[in-house]
């Protein structure tokens, strides 16, 4: 073979290998070599306000409640459920100044279904703070919050993230406390064999989605940098998502905006920075395909950092690169292809606002017919399910 021909053949092999890199969650994970000192922890709210650390579990819960205490007219806190070890799976619901406007689209961000993929956890907390603190001072964010109901679940797998205890993320692991990969534990919408043991974290998430009509959502991961759109269960040649062209345009806008701040962003898998999941690597029983198929929610997977346990000193830089894209992705819901999921009732029929939740005792429930109040002071700590007008309401008593 001539030298020039050999050179081009080697280049072709290299490019092909780069385009077909396996996704980081496709194989049994290899633990990253991380210096625990680089995973600095905030032990108070004041320390967390510097945005250069990860929160302890207690600070995380305190932050989520503090958002509601600081901006009671703009948001409230939902408890999606509890983990195997009883940690809270929380969702901040940002409604803007018109919480009773039931005709706005619902958007959902969720992160860290794999407990050791920490960047998205930090992103979601900082996004909550940015959206709420900018209301009234930023016309752009004010308009967004008045037009979209935004749900943000920063931590879907708290037992995995705090596997080494509530005060550190240094020993975080991919799996939940039962050693199950939660992103391989959703029902396969394309398969006939049901799962025998869906984990409590996923059951809670499925029930939460069932109670809403999330038009768009995203599930944040780490371990690579790429926008991964559906389907995961098939290559695009085998089955193309009906909105694949729209997905590609959305992904391109996200990536292009990031590259305004760092030209090297989202180059880990291919030059485009986005790919159909199955073209990267086929997986089954993932959340993305379940949400897209069962709820007809437009959900994609965001791989937001090549390092799973991003050192704390790099968090601010990554936020600087992706913060505009994260906000702009929410705006995409205003022009998203609309459809009503089968088996999901419109939000108008299901609207219930429960606050404070978790509670030490008193709790208020807003319904279309008015506000009802309960006092759970004499009830034991734990999860309580209250029936309100035929709808189950989950309340956490602390």
Describe this structure in words.
This protein has 398 residues and is α/β, with parallel strands linked by helices. It has two domains: 318 residues, Zn peptidases (Aminopeptidase), CATH 3.40.630.10; 45 residues, no CATH class. 31% of the residues lie in helices and 21% in strands. It is built from twelve helices and 15 strands. A hairpin with a 2-residue loop joins strand 14 and strand 15. Helix 4 packs across helix 11 and helix 8 packs antiparallel against helix 11. The protein is globular. The relative contact order is 0.15. The N terminus is likely disordered.
CATH topology of the largest domain: Aminopeptidase
Please give the share of residues in helix.
25-40%
Could you tell me the strand content as a percent range? 15-25%
In the CATH hierarchy, what is the architecture of the largest domain at level 2? 3-Layer(aba) Sandwich
Side by side, the strands of the main sheet go 3-4-6-5-7-10-8-9
Output mean pLDDT: 87
Extended strand count: 15
Rounded radius of gyration (Å): 21 Å
Give the total of domains: 2
Choose one word for the global shape. Answer: globular
Name of the CATH superfamily of the largest domain: Zn peptidases
Main sheet makeup: 8 strands, mixed
The number of helices is: 12
Order of helices and strands: HEHEHEEEHHEHHEEHEHHEHHEEEEE
Any low-confidence stretches, pLDDT <50, length ≥5?
A: 3-20, 339-351
């Amino acid at each position: 073979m001539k030298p020039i021909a050999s050179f081009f053949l080697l280049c072709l092999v290299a490019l092909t290998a780069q385009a077909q890199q396996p996704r980081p969650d496709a194989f049994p994970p290899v633990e990253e070599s991380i210096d625990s000192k680089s995973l600095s922890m905030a032990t108070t709210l004041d320390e967390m306000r510097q945005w250069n650390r990860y929160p302890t579990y207690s600070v995380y819960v305190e932050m989520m409640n503090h958002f509601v205490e600081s901006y009671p007219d703009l948001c409230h806190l939902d408890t999606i459920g509890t983990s195997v070890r009883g940690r809270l799976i929380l969702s901040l619901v940002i409604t803007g100044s018109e919480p009773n406007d039931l005709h706005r689209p619902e958007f959902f961000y969720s992160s860290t279904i794999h407990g050791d993929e920490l960047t998205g956890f930090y992103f979601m907390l900082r996004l909550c703070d940015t959206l709420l603190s900018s209301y009234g001072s930023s016309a752009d964010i004010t308009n967004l919050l008045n037009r979209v109901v935004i749900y943000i679940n920063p931590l879907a797998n708290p037992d995995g993230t705090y596997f080494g205890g509530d005060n550190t993320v240094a020993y975080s692991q991919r799996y939940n406390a039962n050693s199950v990969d939660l992103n391989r534990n959703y029902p396969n919408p394309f398969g006939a064999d049901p799962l025998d043991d869906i984990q409590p974290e996923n059951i809670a998430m499925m029930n939460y989605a069932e109670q809403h009509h999330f038009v768009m959502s995203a599930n944040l991961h780490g371990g690579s940098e790429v926008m991964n759109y559906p389907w995961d269960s098939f290559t695009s040649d085998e089955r193309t998502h009906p909105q694949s062209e729209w997905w590609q345009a959305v992904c391109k806008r996200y990536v292009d905006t990031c590259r305004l701040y760092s030209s090297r962003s989202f180059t880990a898998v291919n030059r485009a920075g986005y790919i159909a999941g199955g073209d990267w690597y086929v997986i089954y029983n993932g959340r993305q395909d379940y949400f897209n198929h069962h709820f007809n929610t437009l959900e994609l997977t965001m791989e937001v950092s090549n390092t799973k346990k991003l050192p704390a000193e790099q968090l601010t830089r990554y936020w600087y690169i992706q913060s505009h894209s994260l906000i702009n992705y929410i705006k995409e819901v205003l022009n998203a292809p609309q459809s009503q999921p089968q088996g999901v009732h419109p939000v108008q029929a299901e609207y219930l606002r429960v606050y404070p939740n978790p509670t030490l005792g008193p709790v208020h429930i807003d319904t279309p017919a008015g506000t009802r109040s309960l006092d759970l002071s004499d009830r034991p700590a734990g999860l309580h399910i209250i029936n309100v007008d035929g709808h189950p309401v989950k309340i956490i008593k602390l």
